[in-house]
Amino acid sequence: MNFEEMRNQFAILKEQLKNQEIVSDHLIRETMKAKNRDISSTKRTMYSCAVFSVFFIPLNYLTHAWSMTFTIVTMMIILFCTAATYYIHKPVEELNFMRDDFATVARVMAKFKKQYDNWLHYAAPVIIIPFLGWACYEFAWKNAPAGSSPLLLCIPIFVGAAIGGLIGYHYHCKAVNAAEDIINQINE
Predict the structure, then answer these.
(1) Which of 19, 129, 146, 160 is the most exposed, fewest CB within 10 Å of its CB?
(2) Is 136 helix (H, G, I), strand (E, B) or coil?
């Protein structure tokens, strides 16, 4: 009789543990899915910038603030960055957080994080520094009104670059932190 009671209690305990494991697995997957929204927001922001760049040529045609070459190169840079964003985000989009095994999710997130960090540290400066120099030349030196200081005309460009850089860095940190959180959750 004592042995049967222990067997029944063990079966009940085993069932409770089994149910608890499923809930934990489900909660982890739901959290990963929620963190993926932070990663997707960076992609949506870049796509919005790409759509906005379509209006550069008509806007420049009306204002003549920049040369057509500068406008076209700016559009090409934005389209290149959009393509790179798509390439980096594609494996993350293909994940199914509710069904894929944790090892696959962790591997994809680690690759995403590495590519995103490499983009910030290597590609962004190579693109942004020459672009800002050219923008200063186009706006401040080439089109400067007589008697105005070109250095003062560079201030709006640097302020805009600083604001854009801070916004971009915010989205970068948001995506990298979300990927890091997903990796940490899987490791725990």
Answers:
(1) 146
(2) helix
CA distance 77 to 128: 10
- Say if CB 71 and CB 131 are below 8 A apart: no
Phi first, then psi: what are they for 97, rounded to 5°?
-65, -20
Q: Which residue has the tokens 């204002």?
A: 63
Which residue type is seen at 101?
A: D
Task: Please answer whether residues 114 and 85 qualify as being in contact, where contact means their C-beta atoms are separated by less than 8 angstroms.
Answer: no
> Which tokens hold the place of 124?
């962004």
pLDDT in tens, 66-110: 888 888 898 888 889 889 989 999 998 888 887 888 888 889 999
Full DSSP string of 13-34 = HHHHHHHHHHHHHHHHHHHHHH
Q: What is the pLDDT of residues 15-61, one digit of tens each?
A: 777 666 555 677 777 778 888 888 888 888 888 888 888 888 888 88
Reading the block at residue 77, the tokens are 């840079």
Name the amino acid, one letter, at 187. N
- The rounded distance, in Å, linking the Cα atoms of 134 and 174 is 30
- Contact status, residue 48 vs residue 167, Cβ threshold 8 Å: no
